[in-house]
Write a structure and sequence with these properties.
By secondary structure, the chain is of the alpha/beta class. The protein is about 30% helix and about 20% strand.
């Protein structure tokens, strides 16, 4: 093992844990979803379990909160806008005559960068709770007024499938000749084919796809914890199913990040590499509707941050120190330059949901999705 570069570049004890689980499995294989879960969150060994410095310039990737504090400032404005919306209970006096505490629940909060920068300038009673990946923390059951998931869903475990000779096969992880390998076999659950069918998707022969059953399950669970008038805001790589599983993505959407380099081989550098896949927006919208939520809107980073006043903050941009070198890889879009609309990846940021009866959306439900968010954003008060 000492002379094998595959072992040397990985966390050896984690490799042993996964290898032993494969050996103990009835068919000597595990789903990729289980492999990803262990690789990222195994206590004391997984990628997210051993360091909080992953999303830094000296780590493996950057996300928007680490790139510049103005992202957090804009999120703070969004928090204030939701709280101050006329229909939101937390904006009205309680029975005792005092404002209610506004409760924010952030999934995937990491080092707390987003929370710390978002709280700047907010002067109302606010409780901000950070929640880690499922294997690393319990999901609070109390009501939340605003749920934020910033680049969280793309880290949830995925199943990998491929269509061969007209038949859907699942890609499992096995152990051969001293290392992990891929084994194609019958799907581990009929939910995978059902997921694609519900999305209206039929894979082309030879096409691979990455299916996250955990993401819509997460939304269903979180929706049950929303307070009346509550909002769920998801910011992530994401596409409608027709694009995510379309002909441009014959190899799926899985990527890995290490030392600001991007690859597509998750069976290397195990425990030292981040693993992500793009989010199926269609599946989330379906889960949201089944949970009694109404779509507020979907947009890009540029549009979202622009509507929250990023352009107003730009005159003070140079006053905040930033490293001069841009990293080579980012798990998300750069902060939007509001003067160059339409140049940013459409998968960077999207989606808000509100309870059907009490959400702050003040526009026609038959409007196009992107216009619905514009109407909502422009109608909310924006605080500094």
């Amino acid at each position: 093992m000492a002379d094998d570069p595959r072992w040397a570049g990985s966390e050896p004890r984690l490799v042993e844990v996964i290898r032993d689980e494969i050996a103990a499995a009835p068919e000597r294989r595990i789903t990729f979803a289980r492999f990803m879960q262990l690789a990222l969150t195994e206590p004391g060994l997984g990628y997210y379990a051993v360091s909080d410095l992953r999303p830094t310039r000296s780590g493996d990737f950057l996300s928007a909160p680490e790139l510049h504090p103005f992202f957090g400032r804009c999120i703070g404005r969004f928090v204030a806008a939701v709280r101050d919306a006329e229909v939101h209970p937390a904006a009205a006096p309680s029975v005792a005559g005092e404002p209610l505490t506004f409760r924010v629940r952030e999934f995937g909060g990491g080092r707390g960068t987003l929370r710390d920068t978002a709280l700047v300038g907010l002067d109302f009673d606010l409780e901000w709770t950070r929640v880690d990946l499922p294997e690393r923390s319990d999901v609070p059951t109390g009501p939340a007024d605003l749920v934020i998931a910033n680049e969280y869903l793309d880290a949830l475990p995925i199943h990998r499938v491929v269509r061969r000779d007209g038949v859907l096969r699942e890609a499992y992880v096995g152990w051969t000749d001293g290392w992990f390998d891929e084994i194609l076999a019958e799907p581990s659950t009929p939910a995978l084919a059902a997921h694609l069918a519900a999305d209206g998707v039929e894979l082309r022969d030879g096409q691979r796809a990455d299916i996250c059953l955990a993401a819509p399950a997460w939304l269903t669970e979180v929706a049950a914890t929303l307070a009346p008038g509550g909002i769920i805001l998801v910011i992530d790589y994401g596409h409608d199913a027709a694009e995510l599983y379309g002909p441009r993505r014959m190899a799926g959407s899985l990527l890995t990040y290490r030392e600001h380099r991007v690859t597509d081989d998750p069976l290397r550098a195990v425990g030292h590499t981040d693993i992500t896949a793009h989010v199926d927006i269609t599946a989330l919208e379906r889960a949201a509707g089944a949970s009694g939520l109404a779509l507020v809107g979907a947009t890009t980073h540029a549009e979202f941050l622009g509507r929250l006043g990023l352009g107003e903050l730009r005159p003070t941009w140079a006053a905040i120190p930033r490293p001069s070198r841009r990293p080579t890889s980012m798990r998300g879009a750069p902060l939007a330059d509001c003067s160059t609309r339409g140049t940013w990846a459409p998968s960077a940021s999207w989606l808000g949901h509100s309870r059907l009866s009490t959400g702050p959306c003040r526009c026609s439900p038959v409007s196009p999705t992107h216009r619905r968010l514009r109407a909502c954003a422009s109608s909310w008060p924006v605080s500094g």
